[in-house]
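Re: your question about Toll-like receptor 2

S., sorry for the slow reply, the queue was backed up all week. Below is exactly what I fed in.
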Amino acid sequence: MNMRLILWIMRHAMWTVWVLWTIIGLSEEGALKQTSMSCDPVGACDGHSRSLGTIPSGLTEAVKQLDLSFNKISHIRETDLQTCVNLEALLLQSNQISVIEPNSFQSLKNLKRLDLSNNILSHLLSSWFNSLSSLQVLHLQGNLYPQLGQSPLFLHLPNLRVLKVGNNNILELQKQDFEGLSMLEDFEIEANYLQKYEPGSLKSIHNISHLAVSIKEPILLPDIMVDLARSLQCLELRNTDLANFDFSLPSDASSPLIEKIIFRKVQFTDKSFAEVLKMYSFASELLEVVFEDCELNGIGNWEDVSLSKIENQGKMETITIHRLRIKDFFSFYDLSSVYSLLGGIKKITLTSSKVFLVPCELSRNLRSLEYFDLSDGLMSENSLENSACEGAWPSLHTLNFSQNKFKSLEKVGELLLTVKTLTHLDISKNSFDSMPDSCQWPKKLKYLNISSTKTYTVTPCIPQSLEILDISNNQLSDFHLHLPHLKELYLSRNKLKTLPDAANFPNLVAMNISENTVHSFSKAQLESFQTMGSLAAGGNNFICSCEFLSFVHNEQALLANILTDWPENYLCDSPFQVRGKRVQEIHLSFSECYRGPLVAAICSFLFLLALLTGVLCYRFHGIWYMKMMWAWLQAKRKPRKNIDREICYDAFVSYSEGDSNWVENFMVQELENFDPPFRLCLHKRDFVPGKWIIDNIIDSIDKSHKTLFVLSESFVKSEWCKYELDFSHFRLFDENNDAAILILLEPIEKKAIPQRFCKLRKIMNTKTYLEWPRDEAQQELFWVSLRAAIKS
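Result:
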């Protein structure tokens, strides 16, 4: 029992060791694969996501871009990058870096981009950046440092244009933090829990194109705006709760030059939204306001008292709202309190915000509106009837109703007749299905987008005034519509099988018919579009016929000039052997190109050959030779005659039907009536009925002592007897016996005997034969000789 337990433990231990050894081996193999780093010829080295614990050794001056992001690097030594004197980009984000030695970047005088974001740096040293005079992009956000260094970090970075700093531990911004910076194109500060802002901290930066500030509480926002009043062009506020926002500035504050404000993931209330409107009034140069992924906890009850303080309506022209959430959506007011502030707005984008109605009065107050985007909403014909009331949008030229709830193309066109200035209309991604035969549209309409509307046919409902039509991604199988002013036509992702007729578009400049079921097109078709400069026709099911390939290979210059997606998107769909290959690269053989004509030619040749063979066989008795060959083969399969065979007849008579009178009335009478009588075998009399003729002939010859051949002109003219009796000649002569007796019934020239009876001609030349005498006195001697020959 103990021995069995010991053996079990040993087996278990060996199995455990083997498993561990395998796992260790696989881990080492995986680690080897992960730690490898690849570099291309231009000096770009990719080592991201390789589980690296340190910066790889062996880096040379040839390295210009080094990506070591998403690894496990924790320490950067002064010698790690010492040889990378030509390095221009160093990406170290998303590692575990906690220590960077003071002079680690000293040799990187050509460095233009440095990313140290999302590490665990607890402090920042100015010595890191003292030698980086060429640096243009610096990312430091997402670390653990509580402040931006004990001394100014950026004094020696005169070319810095993009700076991203901050984290949730930043509680204070000081004047010294941004000393040395004079101009930034993109500036991001992440300070969600900022508690103190020293006035003047950002004032030293004279020009900031875009500043993104992530801050939870907006209490310090007015101080920041005062410092940036004369330098900032675009302010982006992120992740801010404006519930308690109170916009107030010192009386001596100058009007800011800011042109654009972006609110991203910002929460508003009715009160704070009114404060924002006051800020909009204060920024006299403001042109655009953007709200992205914001939330309004209110019902739009903006008191007239607050709004009455807004005296200056400013220069704002553009309002953009993406994915605005309103909690009490169905209790929301009609916005009538802000109508007066919207008269100068020229462009409004309001998407993915569940908009189902634009009140008629609001539409009328949008007197300067030129561009209105209401895509991805809940607008329908019923709501549009109210929105597009008489006097609505008097200056509007572009309207986007893409991805709403419209169903009637005819109704939409009719309702928009009130918008007399409309030139561009996008109603794509609605469900129109069918298209009526006629529609009414604004007279100035030039652009119409009805793509992705499940349309399966086009009718004269399409306005004749169009210059641009997009009807892509539908179910169209043909397009026969005359549009005399059309310049651009987009028909991609339909079911068209050929290019539209060029006569319908005399002014067409550009067309896209990609991803349809077009099989081919020709030079004549392309040249019929006399004004067209560009065509996209890739992604179709091209049949690479010889005619199409000939056109492609002969007109390379034409195709390269007019096809915008040539040659990469032009692939063969058939024949099967070239499917998926580029049309430009295919060359078919002669037999593949002309298979039909080639097959027809071969069949014609074979027919003529068969006809010629038949004529030749008839002329030179080929059929007879074939019959003889077949008979010979059949005879070969029969057993040879043996000495002890049974003899039933004295002679087998082979004769022509033309000589049957002589045989039956003379020969038979003379021989069978002789004493003793001779027994003759005649095919008419003695062949067994129902038995195969060849078997009858063979059996009769085998049972006969001799074979008599009655030769005459009739014999020759009738092609020397019937086939059955011809075989008897063949059989006898093939066995080379002397049982044949030739009787010449009348004189025959040997030349008259056909060549196919070669053995018969040979026998007549080598053997004697009996000749039937015309003199009756000599006939008795003939019979005596014949009887003697038969008995011999």
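The first helix runs from residue 2 to 35. Confidence is low (pLDDT under 50) at residues 23-35.

Happy to talk it through on Thursday.
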